[in-house]
Design brief:
binds S-adenosylmethionine; alpha/beta; binds zinc ion; seven-stranded mixed β-sheet; globular
């Protein structure tokens, strides 16, 4: 961790001031040490350059299972893709890259850190990515050279942060939580008055084929098996998606014949048609590995924004299968 991260941290138990004890540094990074609360007895280790506020041995079993799947995923699929920036802007639209400039930003569930990295490159004053899983190891490696990027291992429900963020966002995370609305409220509680929050979640609408046919397989089989086995098995559906997007969805959407709009799930499949094999395999694996996944209706999503008292809320339909929202607090 970089020393300046300390000014953003508070004790997750009592919101007291944390004191930093350093036992090993490497250039700008404190690699080993501890964060001790000045008010209560809590102490949190810094290991491998990452402050650890969540102990995976201690968290509830459903959260641990989710963290195990995604932790493995983001330690395996570490690739970078030049299309991540455009994809990210699609998830947080109408936010543009310039919006990040000089903002203090929080990412809830940063995975391998691809969006923390983009926020830092787009000029955020500081960006803090938090994740429960060992994905933080990949995120730390991906962002350690960026002086304004920070990674923390923490549970989104118990954030070791004060209410000091200009902007918080969460992409593809809240629907994997045991209580998605609770995770959203927790994230929003760290945004200062006048700041903004964005969220992107799976939609209930238009996804009945997933909730009826894919979910039972995901819940009973694919999220429970060894991730190495799933890596191999998931190549079969990934190959189907890959062939369909490369041979049908991509070409028909590009040739302007108007036929594409009649294709099944066209908006989504055409949106991923430009990705190569490895990224499409990541996407398919991602859908199958999660033990918990809620598909959330627009009506329910709207209530979250009312619950946090958000103003100027804009909720949009993304690829006709998911919801994105932004509002101010
Ligand atoms: C589908 S991944 C998305 C990662 C990243 N937002 C992205 O788009 O690349 C979901 C992430 O949520 C994280 N996650 C799940 N439960 C969490 C929790 N309770 N607290 C923090 N992160 C959590 C997982 O570890 C995983 O990295
Ligand atoms: Zn404390």
């Amino acid at each position: 961790m970089k020393e300046k991260l300390l000014s953003y941290l508070v004790c997750p138990s009592c919101e007291g001031t944390l004191e930093l004890y350093v036992s090993k540094s490497e250039d700008a990074e404190i690699m080993e040490g501890a964060l001790r609360c000045a008010s209560c007895a809590s102490s949190f280790p810094v290991t491998g350059g990452i402050p650890r506020f969540a102990d995976l041995e201690q968290v509830e079993s459903d959260k641990r299972a989710t963290a195990a799947g995604f932790g493995w995923q983001w330690q395996h699929f570490t690739q970078e893709d030049e299309q991540y920036a455009e994809q990210f802007l699609g998830w947080i639209a109408p936010v543009q890259a310039e919006f990040f400039r000089d903002k203090v930003v929080l990412e809830g569930g940063c995975g391998k850190g691809r969006h923390t990295q983009l926020a830092a490159r787009w000029g955020a004053r500081e960006v803090i990515g938090i994740d429960l899983s060992v994905a933080v190891e990949t995120a730390f490696a991906a962002t350690r050279s960026l002086p304004n990027a920070h990674i923390i291992q923490a549970d989104i429900y118990h954030l070791p942060l004060a209410r000091q963020f200009d902007y918080a966002f969460s992409v593809g995370v809240l629907h994997h939580l045991p209580d998605p609305r609770g995770g959203f409220i927790s994230l929003a509680s760290k945004v200062k008055p006048g700041g903004h929050i964005s969220a992107w979640i799976y939609g209930a609408e238009n996804n009945e084929w997933i909730t009826r046919f894919v979910n039972p397989v995901r819940e009973k089989v694919t999220s429970r098996i060894n991730q190495r086995v799933l890596l191999q098995l998931s190549k079969v559906p990934a190959a189907c998606v890959y062939l369909a997007t490369k041979l049908i969805y991509g070409p028909l959407n590009r040739n302007g014949s108007g036929l594409a709009k009649h294709l099944f799930y066209n908006d989504y499949l055409s949106s991923i048609s430009t990705f190569g094999w490895r990224e499409q395999h990541t996407i398919v694996f991602d859908h199958l590995v999660a033990p918990t996944a809620f598909y959330i209706s627009r009506e329910e999503f709207e209530t979250w924004w009312r619950d946090v008292g958000a103003k100027d809320v804009v909720i949009g339909w993304h690829n006709k299968n998911s919801w994105r929202g932004i509002g101010s607090l």
